[in-house]
Amino acid sequence: MIGTQSAPIKRPKRWVKWGIELAIVLALIFGVRAWQQRTLIMGEAPAFNEIDLKGQEISLAAYQGKPMLLHFWASWCPICEVEQGSINKVVEAGWPMVTVAYSSGEAEEVKRYMERKGISNWVTIVDNDGELARQYGVVGVPTSYVLDANGTISFREVGASTSWGLRLRLWFAEKFN
Length: 177
Known about the structure:
The protein is α/β, with parallel strands linked by helices. Helices cover 39% and strands 20% of the residues. Strands 1-8-7-4-5-6 form a six-stranded mixed β-sheet. A two-stranded antiparallel ribbon has the order 2-3.
C-alpha cells in the first residue's frame, strides 16, 4: 500500500499538559481561598476595648505603631489546636498579638482550657457572644488578621497558618505599609 501512510500524530508536549493541570489546581486553590474570605473585612480594623483573661484592658489603639496579629480561635476547634504551636512562635518572636476566644465559653472556662494546653503567653479576650467576630466578618475559625502600624488590615486568612507564614506577613506589613 503505497501512499496510504499518514503523518505521525503530534501529541502535546508533556510540559503543556502539566502547565494546564497546574493552572487548574491554582485556580481551585485561589477560588476556595476567595470563597472562604468572602465575609472578612478589609480596610480599617474595627476598634475594640475589652478585658483580657488577666484583667487588663485591651484596646486596638494601644497596639498602634507596630504591626500586630489579631487571631480568632475556639477551644472546640481541632484546627485551632493544631495551630497553637505556630501562634506561640509568633509571640516568642516578639510580634504583638491579641487572640480572641470565639464562642468558647466564659472566661473561667477559657482560662482552664489554656492552662490544660500550656498556653500562658497569649493576650486573650473572650468573645462568647460572637460580637467582635461579627464586626470582623469572622464566620469560621481559625481566622487571622495582620494589622499594619496604623490599624489597617494588611492580610486576612481563614484556616491554619504556619508560624513562618504569619511572621512573614507581619514583617511585610512592617516594611511595606
